[in-house]
TrEMBL record:
This is Damage-control phosphatase ARMT1 family protein. Belongs to the damage-control phosphatase family. Sugar phosphate phosphatase III subfamily. Residues 25-381 form the Damage-control phosphatase ARMT1-like metal-binding domain. It catalyses: beta-D-fructose 6-phosphate = dihydroxyacetone + D-glyceraldehyde 3-phosphate; beta-D-fructose 1-phosphate + H2O = D-fructose + phosphate. Gene3D superfamilies: 1.20.930.60, Uncharacterised protein PF01937, DUF89, domain 3. It comes from the Bacteria. Keywords: Hydrolase, Manganese, Metal-binding. Its cofactor is Mn(2+). Pfam families: ARMT1-like_dom (PF01937).
């Protein structure tokens, strides 16, 4: 029996040296700043801004967004609503870890000049790494392997594409920065929760000759670009082709975020990659291209997708989007943190209870890359604890499929 929480668990902070969140703030963030600094021929002003961010990461406090951080002024208002007034002046390590990480990326883009005006306005500082991943031989191999799918029975093909999308979440560039081995470990890794049968009960394959039913809409809240987004797109194309889904809304980030998170530009890159791949992959790519042009698939980049807050705080228009979907599938670790709240839940806490606020059926497809987890049964937790694998929560070697109808 899952445990119903009697009160919210403590929010995860990054203030404990030696903990995973502390390492992200103290080590990963400076490494990301240096990577961006080295990847572009930035002028002195931008380099100074990035160096100032490095100093701030080491021992600084959260500062209000400067007046020139956002030419439209709208983003400053948003950050005010998202907690800036409460957190400005406090240490990066003492505010919620989710907030600190999310805000770091906003500051990094600022320092880089992404919000302009200037030559780097609109440029994605992570694009070189994203494109390298999309062009890697491993991507060719993964796409060529799709040719073998046609021989599989329909249900196995669907399962293979779901698992491709799930484990594609291990391909996360920010993750690899500090743990290069983690994303490449071979072999099928164990699922710690698998509600895929519930997912398919929400998206059944239409039986031949069955009466027309209500249109089925899938909301897919994407995570990383490149080798995660490609299998996400394949899954969407497949569900459309099978008639399990009539329409799909793909949510991506409005600006570069958490190194490899997908933006609209990344959707185009991935789609072009599919279409150019030939074979079965190109067939999926072309189907998706058509579905985008006829409106069955739409792409949305909502500002809240880059908010430093849990989905429980989502605004009304986004709530309506999710409420209109037959099911919303959230990809990846960060979306999971935002879905269940980035808290020290006991792992057996009921997933259904902590997502009860979500405006409709919701599914999480996630590899475990941070401490938060819910919805595990007690036996699974004991087995994980007994396995001697200290980092099962954070190493990306385990995954889950959780669904709340
Ligand atoms: O790409 P994903 O699966 O959302 O994972 C990103 C994860 O990486 C981190 O930045 C560090 O692990 C987490 O904060 C975040 O949850």
């Amino acid at each position: 029996m899952p445990d119903t929480p009697s009160a919210p668990a403590p929010v995860i902070l990054g203030n404990e040296p030696g903990s995973f969140p502390h390492g992200v703030l103290a080590e990963r963030h400076p490494a990301i700043v240096r990577q961006v600094r080295d990847a572009f021929p930035l002028g002195p002003e931008r380099r100074r801004a990035l160096d100032a961010l490095l100093v701030s990461c080491a021992d600084g406090v959260v500062e209000p967004l400067p007046a020139d951080a956002d030419p439209t002024g709208r983003d400053r208002d948003r950050w005010a609503r998202w907690g800036m007034d409460a957190y400005a002046g406090r240490s990066w390590y003492e505010v919620p870890w989710l907030w600190a990480e999310s805000h770091f990326y906003r500051r990094l883009l600022d320092a880089f000049g992404h919000f302009g005006p200037g030559p780097w306005q609109g440029v994605d500082p992570f694009r070189p790494a994203k494109l390298a991943e999309l062009d890697a031989p491993e991507t060719d191999e993964e796409l060529a392997a799709l040719d073998g799918l046609d021989a599989l029975p329909a249900e196995e093909r669907t399962r293979a594409l779901l698992h491709g999308s799930l484990w594609g979440n291990r391909a996360d560039l920010g993750f690899r920065l500090s743990d290069p081995g983690a994303a490449t470990g071979g072999g099928a890794e164990p699922l710690v929760a698998d509600d895929s049968a519930t997912l398919w009960s929400l998206l059944p394959a239409p039986a031949a000759g069955a009466p027309r039913r209500e249109p089925v809409t899938l909301c897919l809240v994407a995570d990383n670009a490149g080798r995660e987004l490609v299998p996400d797109l394949l899954l969407v194309a497949h569900l459309l082709a099978e008639g399990r889904v009539d329409r799909a809304v793909l949510h991506v980030k409005p600006y570069p975020y958490y190194v490899s998170d997908a933006t609209p530009a990344d959707v185009l890159d991935a789609l072009r990659r599919l279409v150019a791949a030939g074979g079965t992959a190109a067939g999926y790519g072309e189907r998706l291209w058509t579905a985008l042009t006829d409106g069955r698939v739409t792409v949305r980049a909502h500002p809240f997708s880059c908010a430093p807050l849990p989905y429980a705080d989502m605004p009304g228009d986004l709530r309506e989007d999710f409420a209109a979907a037959t099911v919303t599938v959230l990809k990846g670790d960060l979306n999971y943190r935002r879905l269940v709240g980035d808290r020290w839940w006991p792992p057996t806490t009921s997933f259904a209870d902590v997502t009860a606020y979500f405006p409709g059926p919701v599914a999480a497809l996630r590899t475990l890359k941070s401490d938060v987890v819910t919805g595990l049964d007690a036996g699974t937790v004991s087995a994980l604890e007994a396995s001697g694998e200290r980092r099962w929560r954070t190493s990306g070697t385990h995954a889950l499929i959780q669904v709340r109808r």
